Amino acid sequence: MQPRKIAAGNWKMNGTPADIPEAHGIAEAAAAWAGVTVLCPPATLISQLAAEVPGSALKLGGQCCHPAAKGAHTGDVSAPMLASAGATFCIAGHSERRADHGETDADVARQCEAIWAAGMTAIMCIGETLAQREAGETLDVLAAQLDGSLPARATAANTVVAYEPVWAIGTGRVASPEQVAEVHDALRARLRARMKDGAGVSLLYGGSVKAANAAELFALENADGALVGGASLKADDFVPIVKALAAS
Ligand code: PEP
């Protein structure tokens, strides 16, 4: 089984209805290739986008979810809520959630279960800090995060794994192709060892991906796409990344 090529955009806490034309531009690019294009806008925009780009090749995703389906959790959003708004993907374990909200590997594993129970695909994120990289701990840290954050019933159909070095997110400092290759090859081996269809799990790189550095990353054997933050906010920045993935 070949991994699906996936270009995913994460708008983070950015975007109001005034930004919807950008999503239309991204939806046009999504229709022009055979891979998967996902946009994760703020939850407030999902249903409006689902209504405006119905049946489009552009898939919509949530950025996080509470592990419970409903209840007294002020300010949180649940996986069934995101799915009912039109999301078919949801990010789990983004480093900004881990840092800002103290989400642990165990929390992320529960979120994956909730995402699957709602019929969505989890985009599960892991990544080392700069201190961990400089201490030579990268592969051990990532192996522990993968094992702790990904429940046993993960499959290539319900899960995408995103490697996002914390030091590369929003910093303009992209990991080198050699660094990405080392990590993605190790993650592929670990996924193959623990899952029957581990060879088919899409492995995305995230961290300051731009049009200028996308092609060299997508040329790597185990880089099946990207999770893109800042450069997904404007169609003019994101569409060339989608095209670079389509051409890879
Ligand atoms: C992200 O938020 O997942 C991300 C990779 O951000 P950026 O592309 O801005 O570094």
**Which blocks of ≥5 consecutive residues have pLDDT under 50?**
none
Helical fraction equals: 40-55%
Q: How would you classify the helix and strand content by structural class?
A: alpha/beta
Name of the CATH class: Alpha Beta
CATH architect. name? Alpha-Beta Barrel
Structural domains: how many: 1
Order of SSEs: EHEHEHEHHEHHEHEHEH
Radius of gyration: 16 Å
Query: Ions, cofactors, ligands: which are bound?
Result: phosphoenolpyruvate
Major sheet = 8 strands, parallel, barrel
Distance between the termini: 18 Å
Task: Report the count of strand segments.
Answer: 8
Q: Roughly what fraction of the amino acids lie in strands? A: 15-25%
| Number of helical regions | 10
Structure description:
It is a single chain. By secondary structure, the protein is α/β, with parallel strands linked by helices. It has one domain: Alpha-Beta Barrel (TIM Barrel), CATH 3.20.20.70. Helix content is 42%, strand content 16%. It is built from ten helices and eight strands. The chain has helices at 20-30, 43-52, 79-85, 95-101, 105-117, 130-134, 138-149, 177-194, 211-218, 235-246; strands at residues 6-10, 36-40, 58-62, 89-92, 121-126, 159-163, 202-206, 225-228. It has an eight-stranded parallel β-barrel, surrounded by eight helices. Strand 1, helix 1 (20-30) and strand 2 (36-40) form a beta-alpha-beta unit. Helix 1 packs parallel to helix 10 (235-246), helix 7 packs across helix 8 and helix 9 (211-218) packs parallel to helix 10. The longest helix has 18 residues, at 177-194. It is globular and about 45 Å long. It starts with 5 loop residues before the first strand and ends with a helix. The relative contact order is 0.17. The model has no long low-confidence stretch (mean pLDDT 96). The structure holds phosphoenolpyruvate.
